[in-house]
Recover the amino acids of this structure.
């Protein structure tokens, strides 16, 4: 019960803050590639060596993919995702084994699962499963520490290289959470709970986040004492240096604690987006100065490809060189406007959020003589018929 209250409190802090899009090198295909370790394990019963089960690993890969894509760790228990969890192999494009290396030395084996992005996106749309886009994920500076028997270690990349037993980096990577690890130990921030944050500390956090182009600072500490459960404390800071929330959990093993912390982090980060994404809206989008039916078809195809934000695209009418679409989209209006503005060679002429109407003009096409104007409606219908006959 206490953990649930801490999580609700933590989510309420995050819900008050707008999430800034963070620069990262993940594209849509990267989001659908999962890497799972594929190393033998030692049985707790008889200490025998057990080979990993490929089917179970693929199923775990699908679970991890669902959490990664939605930002919701509870998604794997929901009814709408069971067709994916129960038959994960059917959603794979390829899988392969790769050596896992450290400093050029092979230390294990990974299973690389490449899931079919297009098929999954289409299936997610039908099942109304909301995706947390890569562009909506904030960047986080991680500042961890490890306290054992009175000795304190700041978890810089260098120190983590010496301590694989407390290395946490694989899990935020698995969740596709953009992050950097702090390196300068003289300015370390510890997750001290309670009390007001000193102004000097807030100013220093703001400076560090601004300099590194990060949106949040996550400070955490692992505490391990003989004969006691392991404890993990963390505190999150916003870009202005203010504390947004804190929590602590305990358990017998470190990695499950770290996974819980990062799962709660992405749930908090994605909460606002998932709430907004539950709303379906419709807008009328027009394009003027079209030159051909091929251009019209390209625009329609582009809009239909913008899943999961765009649900449906209907061509309402064609009048001379102007086409009008009705677009059903998910989320808020401003995000939708930015998305449609990425249609190639278009200029935004006018928009009205109140009535949901957006008007574009094709860029740089000039004014064509009247004798060369094309009846786009007839050409469009002819192209559609030709495509259908070719299928």
């Amino acid at each position: 019960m206490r953990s649930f209250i801490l999580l609700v409190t933590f989510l309420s802090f995050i819900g008050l803050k707008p999430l800034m899009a963070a620069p990262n090198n993940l594209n849509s295909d990267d989001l659908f590639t999962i890497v799972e370790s594929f190393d033998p394990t030692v049985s707790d019963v008889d200490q025998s060596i057990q080979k990993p089960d490929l089917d179970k690993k693929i199923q775990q890969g699908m679970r991890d993919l669902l959490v990664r894509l939605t930002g919701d760790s509870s998604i794997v228990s929901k009814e709408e995702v069971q067709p994916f969890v129960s038959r994960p192999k059917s959603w794979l494009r390829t899988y392969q084994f790769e050596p896992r290396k450290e400093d050029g030395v092979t230390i294990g084996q990974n299973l690389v699962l490449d899931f079919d992005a297009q098929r999954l996106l289409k299936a997610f749309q039908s099942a109304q499963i909301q995706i947390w886009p890569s562009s909506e994920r904030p960047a986080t500076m991680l500042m961890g520490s490890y306290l054992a028997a009175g000795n304190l270690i700041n978890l810089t990349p260098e120190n983590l290289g010496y301590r694989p037993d407390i290395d946490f980096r694989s899990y935020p990577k698995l969740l596709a959470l953009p992050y950097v690890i702090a390196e300068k130990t003289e300015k370390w921030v510890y997750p001290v709970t309670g009390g007001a944050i000193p102004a000097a500390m807030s100013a220093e956090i703001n400076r560090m986040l601004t300099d590194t182009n990060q949106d949040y600072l996550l400070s955490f500490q692992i505490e391990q004492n003989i004969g006691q459960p392991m404890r993990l404390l963390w505190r999150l800071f916003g870009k202005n240096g203010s504390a947004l929330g804190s929590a602590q959990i305990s358990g017998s093993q470190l990695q499950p604690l770290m996974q819980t912390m990062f799962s709660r982090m992405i749930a908090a980060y994605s909460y606002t987006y998932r709430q907004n994404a539950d709303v379906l809206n419709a807008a009328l989008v027009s394009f003027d100065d079209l030159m051909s039916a091929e251009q019209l078809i390209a625009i329609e195809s582009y809009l239909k490809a913008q899943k999961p934000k765009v649900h449906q695209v209907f061509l309402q009418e064609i009048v001379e060189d102007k086409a009008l679409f009705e677009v059903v989209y998910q989320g808020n209006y401003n995000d939708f406007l930015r998305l449609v503005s990425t249609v190639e060679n278009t200029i935004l002429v006018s928009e009205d959020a109140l009535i949901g109407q957006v008007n574009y003009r094709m860029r740089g096409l000039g004014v064509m003589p009247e004798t060369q104007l094309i009846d786009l409606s007839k050409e469009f219908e002819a192209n559609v018929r030709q495509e259908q006959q070719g299928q």
In short: The chain has twelve helices and 16 strands.
